[in-house]
């Protein structure tokens, strides 16, 4: 038997590299399933918070994203996000899944960024990100958005907006990636992108009838807690799977994910108790999700107690951000902007303080680790570009639809509820 010390170091390195490929592939395949499960989890999370007459409408919008966006991702989305070597846009090299099983490497994924997994596995993993991102928007537009308008919005958005931002940030050829902006699992690409798009649509869509005068409490908080649990569970694949390998970085990202969610729940509930007098079940669920959002860009770049600090800050700040909608008069029905937009921005900025190259040598040191302000500047540029592009394109799209087919249901249909008016179904007899 040969011991490692008796093998030529170069041969040993090659053996370890070859052996790591099946493990990486197995972990990413599990992560694909975990992230796919998040979209039904999101449906329950949101579904419990709407009124009973709109629960099927909410579930349908989320589940429908799994169908439409997956097809669009296979058709053109993946190619636009990861094809070609352009800084700003992909190309159609992989359109209609062409070359995915024969290509040796994706453009830019060489050297330190070489994939250990098959390109097809990477395609599937990124597809689940593409699916859940537009689904996040549904929480802001709940109770009054036409299903037909929703279908068109997420279809166009998934071809124009999402792949473009994903190319900028995720592709090694993207201009924000090359600038030095860090986003481990989608703080800007997913949460800020979806959150600011939700704001754009809400500004065109208008407020629910009766808001904010009438109380519109959640109809089924157990659904929301169930959805929180599914999201928390799936988020391990979301963040730890983004290591694209079964290694110490994946373990670090998984631990960071859990600790940030736990700390954010505590932060949210403490501030809620101090401000409102009660620590609520809805607050616990929302706080955990806020922490999961904030740690997403940071998960593979921070360590130690940093995820707890990031999570706690996110929980407290995102709770305070709930007042934005009443202050500015826009009806973000289920607090997508406070949790996803604010949480995503906060996570991207806090990363510039807590990033540590001892955790990930391909990252950068944050301000607290002697890195200066360069990373912070890069993060702010990435956030500014994402917000400006996503908001502008989404607002124009919403305006066009509002002037043509109409964005929102009629007053009568809104009073009846989306379940009956849009789908001719009822969740409860």
UniProtKB/TrEMBL annotation:
Membrane topology: Multi-pass membrane protein
Segments passing through the bilayer: 24-47, 59-82, 115-137, 149-170, 190-207, 219-238, 250-270, 282-302, 308-324, 336-355, 375-398
Entry's Gene Ontology cellular component terms: plasma membrane
Pfam family, any one: Ammonium_transp
Matching SUPFAM superfamilies: Ammonium transporter
Keywords: Ammonia transport, Membrane, Transmembrane, Transmembrane helix, Transport
PROSITE patterns for the chain: AMMONIUM_TRANSP
Subcellular location: Membrane
Family: Belongs to the ammonia transporter channel (TC 1.A.11.2) family.
PANTHER family assigned to the protein according to its UniProt record, in alphabetical order: AMMONIUM TRANSPORTER MEP2
Protein name listed in UniProt: Unannotated protein
